[in-house]
Amino acid sequence: MAVQFLWVVLLALVLVVMAVGPTLRRSYPYVWWCLLGYPATVLRMLLTWRRLTTAVGLAVPRRPARALFGEMVVKGDPLRPVPPRLGAPKLRRGGLEVVVRLHPGQVPEQFAVVVDAVVHAWRVHAVRVTSDARGFVRVTALAWDPLAAPSVPHSTRPVLLRALVGLLEDGRLWVIDFRTAPHWLIVGATRSGKSTLIASLVKQLAPQRVALFGIDLKGGMELSLFEARLSALAASRAQAAQLLAELVAEAEARMELCRSVGARSIWELPAKLRKVPIVLIVDEVAELYLMATREEKAEVGEVSTNLLRLAQLGAALGVHLVIAGQRVGSDLGPGVTALRAQLAGRVCHRVSDPGTAEMALGDLSKDALDAAQRITLAEQGVAITAGDDGQWLRARSIHVVPDQARRAARKYAHLAPAWPGLTTADDSDDSEEGVYL
Ligand SMILES: Nc1ncnc2c1ncn2[C@@H]1O[C@H](COP(=O)(O)OP(=O)(O)OP(=O)(O)O)[C@@H](O)[C@H]1O
Ligand SMILES: [Mg+2]
Predict the structure, then answer these.
(1) From the CA of 258, how far away is ligand 1's center (Å)?
(2) What is the pLDDT of residues 165-203, one digit of tens each?
(3) What SS3 state is found at 36?
(4) Is residue 168, in this structure, part of any structural domain at all?
(5) Ligand nearest to the backbone CA of 191
């Protein structure tokens, strides 16, 4: 009787799950994943692991493929090969993570090339294989594409020179942190999402005590949205040349100041002398380097030298660069390769040629290049970026529409220091004191 009752309860439970599962998945995907998706995927993993690893050649036979049978050598596939040992699957936001122990002789690349088979066997959206300990690989599975409709918390406490610009594929927030990487390169084909990422960045920096400058040689079309919050906006090359010369002079003045008090960076200056950090945003950098006449050549040379000087001197003096463009190749001019080498932070949106992806991500890994080239036209705002740990990740920026950008700029217009001659940071607000250190 009791057994029958248990069966009825079990059946009722299965029916309830089948009825509410799809609705739960649609309305509360994370709850669905924790309650149903994750346990079901773990079960599937455990039930299919041996067959899966045997099929893709990762299970290793216990016995050799040849054996002596009397006077004869018999050749064949030994029965029940041993699959690599699977660790305990850990629940992650919208996915799971499991560590697998390699058999002697196996390398992580052998797992990386069979991820498609794993995706199908586990019925998940995507699988990534990484290795951070010798002899082990970390397999991360995502239940769905978290970048399809990224949701980012609205209010986070602002931290100086850190901007929450979107969401990373692994569910973490995508933060552009100028204290980790002082200068950033953003590349991508037209309509891939460069300006939207810049809008997201400026919206985050606007409430902070930071001086924002813009160079936008598309007639100021893109950056003029934030004009109220910018200390200066250069919309022509002549203006850009002047602004860059002034910024180099400011950087030199800061250097002199640091030297006079024995500080190695502006962050070591006494509070009274501390300077406001500067972020210079260049949208469509190629325009700075295009030249037709001889006179322009001299101007381009000056612009190129000053941009490079800012990149080289900048970090310790609180001068940061964000350089965006469709192409940032050496064909633009001799200074471009040297400038690119100074831009440690990299973001690569959809690209139209492999060369551009290689320029942006070349020093990461081949997988990162492949992932950048797989970004489709429909995935505007999706990019490949390097995390704090040097690992690359897919990410998507917050979709900041022009109106939002304009409103944010107007709201914080009073925080834009006057130019030329930046004012000294007002340190009366103790809450932000710590972030200078
Ligand atoms: N994160 C995002 N989420 C959703 N849509 C986006 C996102 N980023 C960009 N888009 C869409 O893509 C369009 C083009 O983006 P954006 O203007 O930023 O591209 P761009 O790379 O600056 O192009 P261009 O090189 O022509 O200036 C935007 O108008 C917007 O509709
Ligand atoms: Mg643009």
Answers:
(1) 40
(2) 999 887 788 999 999 899 999 999 999 999 999 999 999
(3) helix
(4) yes
(5) 1
Domain assignment present for residue 128? The answer is: yes
Domain CATH for 115: 3.30.980.40
Q: How far apart are CA 204 and CA 177, in angstroms?
A: 11
Query: Is residue 283 within a helix (H) or strand (E), and if so which, with residue range?
Result: strand 278-283
Instruction: Using a cut of 0.85, tell me whether the model's pTM lies above it.
Output: no
| H runs (alpha helix) in 223-365 | 237-261, 286-289, 294-317, 334-342, 354-361
180 and 272 housed in the same domain: yes
CA gap 172, 175 in Å, rounded? 9
Regarding beta strands 85-86 and 95-101, do their DSSP bridges make them parallel or antiparallel, or are they unpaired? antiparallel
Atom of ligand 1 nearest to the CA of 198: 18
Q: In angstroms, what is the span from residue 287 Cα to ligand 1's centroid?
A: 19
Same domain flag for 104 and 222: no
Give, as residue ranges, everything with CB less than 5 Å from ion ligand 2: 194-195
Q: Is the CB of residue 325 below 6 angstroms from any atom belonging to ligand 1?
A: no
CA 182/CA 81 separation, integer angstroms: 51
Predicted pLDDT at 132: 82
Domain extent for 388: 162-418
Distance from C-alpha of 37 to C-alpha of 30, rounded to nearest angstrom: 9
Atom of ligand 1 lying closest to residue 398 CA:
1
pLDDT, tens digit (0-9, with 9 covering 90-100), for 76-101? 776 778 999 999 999 998 899 999 99
b/e map of 201-213 (b: 16 or more CB within 10 Å)? bbbbbbebbbbbb
